[in-house]
């Protein structure tokens, strides 16, 4: 291609006027979704092309690509404009969301082209989370499919209130009104409970452009708007500025001792100097002194603006807290109910500890109760013990520290959160808060006069939880028994919690699925904590194969109290010993979910004590443990007496 | 009551939010400064985000040693004027091997002097987050990338397995050695960039404005002969022509366009009638299909 002779046009005044007009245009963010091959990428290609957003060199590249990868014969394959990844072009599918930009004389648009395959639902959710409108595409020959329903449910959960039902490929059913009417009827039935404010059905052919930018002359029976006409005029105003003031504190700006500003983006409402504001978590109140900006202080600021607030007095506020209107405060709780969409190939396990993040806050959280899963076909509420990838459910969540929030239905910014896996750091789920659970406020901790320290002192010892983890048959129980005997002989007060024994009583309702294993560990960890609180030295002997649960147990205990003991015996040796004959049966397939055989064991990365048992006696192991305990107690005694108590 | 924000106000707020999120969540961020117009906007936004403080991170320029001389002069002038901490990194191995765009081609040159150099610099200082000025409207693999884009310890981008990115809630968690590339200008278009430069009166390298410059026509592009290292091929002549640049990179790989746009208004006016994309003047994008994605996976910005 040749360099081009560009001609600068228009006197500069003309350009300034033009730009001023551009600035006044509103913005609509929307996504295209629906099932595979319903023509999402083709539609966006058509929109970009018909609104003159494609440059000559891009068109030339597109023609080349169409010959190589295209699926439309000699015609240009518009899908190749948005399927920007090599893997996508080669496979002819959309894997991840693409963001494209276009404008018409009336409005600016950001469109997210999202994948239809079920396996990439999380990428569809990513595109939907920032959109105000969804174009749900349907292949006129196929009608409403499972993915049409799943995407509609997710769009609804994520707060989208406006739908365009694009009945595409209408040319392939002879522009037949009856087909169109039937699909519109089906979708209307299905989506009745999804709370959409508008559903605008449009018959179209994205490939040939019918009813995309201009009205088609092939469907005299259709009198509604073309897609672009509708997108240009639909009102999606959420008016976040009308809601109560919410300012999640993102960053504390403190360049010197004379300046302390709270930086963040106003989530809703507005603020002006002199306004009273309340710190959500502490309830302390103050007044806004200045709204600082690079171009000078502002007289007011509103939802969507990223500002820095300076307050009248020194109140304690850090990232994750929120400055709010005193008249309408958010909820502050550590237990709440939420809708959850699961993204990860490892299922959600109730009881497992995840990182929970809101826009600026972070804490650890567990799902305490999975109430039900939603069947995307018929909305049935199904009982479930876990959520698999791409499933949607309602659950109760418990956080380690309280967070400030509003119900998602009232505020899309302050009512949302994501869950992150502690080990892989993957974003595993997205949540929309429904309401707080009163439980958190009603159960206060009983403050007791006789404390843990006193109970332990009476026994002349320091509490500890020795957590033995290792494969079945690695020698945990043998070593634990001998260790307890030794401690008993030196006058220590102890208790052993043994995996097998606990399963006969407290945990006899639990099986061996991943979800049950997590709950098994959670209960035992809680019991161990109570016993440590009573001043005991607790020895827990559990396979406990998952590091996430061992970490959860660790976090329950006071600092220095949790002692992870890795009883490290190679798999072959355990299988050879096989004291209970279990390995033989598991290897024969008679026992399912057996750790080390068909269920994983995650090796501890940094155990306090690592016992390599091969070639050593149980007595030697116990010596190591006792030595460790004595060292710790000596260290703590020194610390205490040095502390001036 | 305030009326709704304008388009540029919305974009500005989003970018500032992203800057602050990184400053709050990462231990050692850095801003990649490539001296072009997008970097100028990025720098301006960083100054705004932390005002009255300075941006709490250094700026890094990966110098391929083949940048236009005017870019280097502009870079040093800006660093002095704004008082930011400027780090310059050159791949000394590449210099020793005399890697250059003429003998080794754009692919090898870009890989060694830019991609590898960038990885060296990130490893050397141990940065855990790096801001870049890439925009989604530039190129179709960029249209697919997250605002917070995860890189493993080898700086590799896995486009088929990106983290979901919901609302404005960014997952900033990484393990040791891993990093995040952050793109505050993801949702800006080329037109937005120019409008913003005009509105905020942001300084840019003079090469963007039309002027008589000594150019050579080569492979269908107009190359500015910025120094003697560019040898003329038989039949080639250096002519003074009225040209300007729409994007800036290494001078032997960046084509000029003939233009008489000497003011920002004229540049915007020209843009509005442009029939080709800005990357059309970049030789590196044309080597092979999907070449940007390939470079990005290897660690290019």
UniProtKB/TrEMBL annotation, chain A:
Family: Belongs to the TRAFAC class translation factor GTPase superfamily. Classic translation factor GTPase family. CysN/NodQ subfamily. Belongs to the APS kinase family.
PANTHER family named among the record's database cross-references: TRANSLATION FACTOR
InterPro entries membership: APS, APS_kinase_dom, CysN_GTP-bd, CysN_II, CysN_NoDQ_III, G_TR_CS, GTP-eEF1A_C, P-loop_NTPase
Entry annotated with the keyword Repeat: no
Superkingdom of the organism of origin: Bacteria
Record organism: Mesorhizobium qingshengii
Catalytic activity: sulfate + ATP + H(+) = adenosine 5'-phosphosulfate + diphosphate; adenosine 5'-phosphosulfate + ATP = 3'-phosphoadenylyl sulfate + ADP + H(+)
Active site feature: 544
Pathway assigned to this chain's UniProt record: Sulfur metabolism; hydrogen sulfide biosynthesis; sulfite from sulfate: step 1/3; Sulfur metabolism; hydrogen sulfide biosynthesis; sulfite from sulfate: step 2/3
Residues binding ATP: 470-477
Gene3D superfamilies, per the entry: P-loop containing nucleotide triphosphate hydrolases (3.40.50.300), Translation factors (2.40.30.10)
Binding site for GTP: 34-41, 113-117, 168-171
UniProt subunit comment: Heterodimer composed of CysD, the smaller subunit, and CysN.
Protein name per its UniProtKB record: Multifunctional fusion protein
Domain Tr-type G: 25-240
Single GO MF annotation: ATP binding
EC number, as in UniProt: 2.7.7.4, 2.7.1.25
TrEMBL record, chain B:
Pfam families: PAPS_reduct (PF01507)
Gene3D superfamilies assigned: HUPs (3.40.50.620)
GO BP annotations listed: hydrogen sulfide biosynthetic process; sulfate assimilation
Domain Phosphoadenosine phosphosulphate reductase, chain residue ranges per copy: 29-255
UniProt enzyme class: transferase
GO molecular function, one term: sulfate adenylyltransferase (ATP) activity
InterPro entries referenced in this protein's UniProt entry, alphabetically: PAPS_reduct_dom (IPR002500), Rossmann-like_a/b/a_fold (IPR014729), SO4_adenylTrfase_ssu (IPR011784), Sulfate_adenylyltrnsfr_sub2 (IPR050128)
Highest taxon of the lineage: Bacteria
Involved pathway(s): Sulfur metabolism; hydrogen sulfide biosynthesis; sulfite from sulfate: step 1/3
EC code: 2.7.7.4
Family: Belongs to the PAPS reductase family. CysD subfamily.
Task of the protein: With CysN forms the ATP sulfurylase (ATPS) that catalyzes the adenylation of sulfate producing adenosine 5'-phosphosulfate (APS) and diphosphate, the first enzymatic step in sulfur assimilation pathway. APS synthesis involves the formation of a high-energy phosphoric-sulfuric acid anhydride bond driven by GTP hydrolysis by CysN coupled to ATP hydrolysis by CysD.
Protein's recorded name: Sulfate adenylyltransferase subunit 2
Organism ancestry: Bacteria, Pseudomonadati, Pseudomonadota, Alphaproteobacteria, Hyphomicrobiales
Gene: cysD
